[in-house]
Amino acid sequence: MEDVRDVKGFKGFVERLTLGITRVLEGLPGVTDVRFVEREPAEKRYLLSWEKKNNCLLPEDLRDFYLTTDGFTLSWSSRLEGQPVPLGSMVINSVAKLLPLCQSTLYCLPNAPTLADLDSEEETEGSEDQPEAPHFDSRSRIFELDPCGGNGKVCLVFNNCTPGEEAEQSEVWFLDRALYWHYLTSSFTAYYRLMITHLGLPEWQYNFTPYGPSPQAKQWAYLYRPLTAHSDPHIDPTGEPIVNKLDPSKAFRGKAKQPVPKKKSSAPSAGGTGTPKAQGGSGRQGGTRK
């Protein structure tokens, strides 16, 4: 009985932690192999050690999250031609992997450019719609939340930092593969809900960029998130969605219009239809009389 209660308790915990998304995924057509990785809560001393080491104060919602589970991993696959294909992935790094975003030391030559050299005041200035973009230098402290499967990085960013002082205010930003910043949310809770809502589909973070996800990623979104995918704001100058979509009404529009010119060509002779018919009729009658 204790084992049964433990199983029920764990399922209830997973339901609350994942906002019920595991049950939703299992009900979608073709979805298989939904996996949630169970993790123990992080110890409070680890959180205090991280704050002291990085001179940053974790936001309260992220702190509560780590005290519930030390990171988050949920993945699922889609069955394609009878074979499971890994598709969805939702990841929040553990405290140990919440590391500063820094340049690889593989090519650290004396005169090699650094990430700080990419900063441009024009590109990082804030606007009314979103705050000032992060900097790669000491003005910002950036930590990786989600590696995004190599398609970019979701980062916890502390902006307007002063050397030697503890940073408190944080935001969540997306760094794409071209090293451009895109604002996501002002809090970890908002980002977490956003990740769950997008089902961890490939490249979903690119919905918050001017260019959007790749055509292949959009196809998966049309399949598993049709309501939001059809309201895609990323369109080309002609007003058409930037996605390889098969629309029969458009694809076969030329064939559907082929019979129309034939009908129009016969229309001008409509006024003289009586004469040929009459002539034809008199000819036949004349033939029978003969």
From TrEMBL:
<dbReference type="InterPro" id="IPR039231">
    <property type="entry name" value="TPGS2"/>
</dbReference>
<protein>
    <recommendedName>
        <fullName>Knr4/Smi1-like domain-containing protein</fullName>
    </recommendedName>
</protein>
<feature type="compositionally biased region" description="Gly residues">
    <location>
        <begin position="280"/>
        <end position="290"/>
    </location>
</feature>
<feature type="region of interest" description="Disordered">
    <location>
        <begin position="235"/>
        <end position="290"/>
    </location>
</feature>
<feature type="compositionally biased region" description="Basic residues">
    <location>
        <begin position="252"/>
        <end position="265"/>
    </location>
</feature>
<dbReference type="InterPro" id="IPR018958">
    <property type="entry name" value="Knr4/Smi1-like_dom"/>
</dbReference>
<dbReference type="InterPro" id="IPR037883">
    <property type="entry name" value="Knr4/Smi1-like_sf"/>
</dbReference>
<dbReference type="Pfam" id="PF09346">
    <property type="entry name" value="SMI1_KNR4"/>
</dbReference>
<feature type="domain" description="Knr4/Smi1-like">
    <location>
        <begin position="41"/>
        <end position="194"/>
    </location>
</feature>
